[in-house]
Amino acid sequence: MSSNIIKEAFPDQWENWAWQLQNSIVSVEQLAGLLRISEAECAMLRETTQKYPLAITPYYWSLIDFTDPEDPLRKQCLPSYEEICCPVSNEDDPLAEDEDMVVPNLVHRYPDRVLMIVTNICAMNCRHCTRKRLWESGRKGFSRQEVDKMLAYIRLTPTIRDVVVSGGDPLMLSDNNLEYILRNLREIRHVEIIRIGTRAPVVLPQRITRGLVTMLRKYRPIWVNTQFNHPNELTTRSTLACDQIISAGIPINNQSVLLKGINDDASIMKTLCHKLLAASIRPYYIFQCDPVKGTEHFRTSVWTGVEIIENLRGHTSGLGVPTFVVDAPGGGGKVPLQPNYLISMSADSLVFRTYEGRVIRYPNPADNFASTYSKEF
């Protein structure tokens, strides 16, 4: 990739998602040609990318302000020596996904839903990724036989009503391969909900083609979960991609990851949530960054997330307040955390703290039905 690739690209090339992938930055040598990086820095980055490879689309690269060394998009995509020099007490798989795999790449943790990992390829290798362990095995999609084993388990397990199709990024599959998965899922009578987890609208909006959207529309109800982490990622182009999906009757939820120096600020998160709502995207979750090896430098205190929610609740529309969630290590599942507004309670009243800090006593009506029921039985 030359330093002038963005200027050199013709519009039809720029809008071609295959061209974007073919011209992605995937080596330290390419970075050195684009940025002023010393040989010592290059040596550290080579060591980093041997373990955690590099991949940045030209589109996402074009959004970075390189005059700002603290640019929030730069931090999400450029490798850092901190990924391998930070304390190694964290785990490759702290959420114990591998332990809950009932067949290869199918995680069944919650009673009524499963997670299908259908590829380990993403358009961009986000440096905070919770599945960085998959990068070390190389970029690969999974075979039809591997997918069929996952589908067979789902068919034979009638308690499953919700399937999350994830990766990697499932939109890195061809339309035909993705449709094979969706069509087979939709033919399973007990599967009610299909969710697609993708960051393509953020890092490769060109992937949202008319053909893809037409295909997805056939298998509704489908929900798309994406990950905008900073207001600067909501561009005219990414908003257009999301609008194409939403216009096909497919709602989009956003699941941000709380990242130090990127969005760990209430005003930034409020701006992000407002821009999401303006694009008809629901701010769904803020995830505490998982204790994954190679991500410690991104992690904030849990209380930072609680404080952000407190600065959103009551200060903006309830639609713009996501749920702050910690994914419990060891496969414990998602734990929602909210500011504590309950000060005390008794049988006849509760004492609340409002978002403005006022203390209010609230009369608690007696549960006459429950009292009567307990006397009769």
Description:
With 377 residues, this protein is α/β, with parallel strands linked by helices. It has three domains: 5-85, no CATH class; 98-337, Alpha-Beta Barrel (TIM Barrel); 342-376, no CATH class. The chain is 34% helix and 17% strand. The chain contains 16 helices and 13 strands. It has helices at 5-8, 11-14, 17-22, 28-34, 39-51, 58-62, 72-77, 82-85, 144-155, 175-186, 200-203, 210-217, 236-247, 266-278, 302-312, 368-376, and strands at 101-103, 106-107, 113-117, 162-166, 193-197, 222-226, 252-258, 282-288, 323-328, 333-337, 342-345, 349-353, 359-363. A ten-stranded mixed beta sheet has the order 1-2-3-4-5-6-7-8-9-10. A hairpin with a 2-residue loop joins strand 1 and strand 2 (106-107).
Q: What is the CATH C-level name of the largest domain? A: Alpha Beta
Helix content: 25-40%
What characteristic shape results from the CA principal axes? Answer: globular
CATH topology heading of the largest domain: TIM Barrel
Q: In the CATH hierarchy, what is the architecture of the largest domain at level 2?
A: Alpha-Beta Barrel
Question: What does the average pLDDT come to?
Answer: 92
Q: Numbering strands along the chain, what is their spatial order in the largest sheet?
A: 1-2-3-4-5-6-7-8-9-10
Question: How many helical elements?
Answer: 16
Count of folded domains:
3
SS-derived structural category: alpha/beta
> What is the C-alpha radius of gyration, as a whole number of Å?
23 Å
What's the end-to-end separation, in Å?
77 Å
CATH superfamily of the largest domain: Aldolase class I
What is the helix/strand order? Answer: HHHHHHHHEEEHEHEHHEHEHEHEEEEEH
Query: Main β-sheet, in a few words?
Result: 10 strands, mixed
What proportion strand? 15-25%
Low-confidence stretches: 369-377
> Based on DSSP secondary structure assignment, what is the total number of beta strands?
13
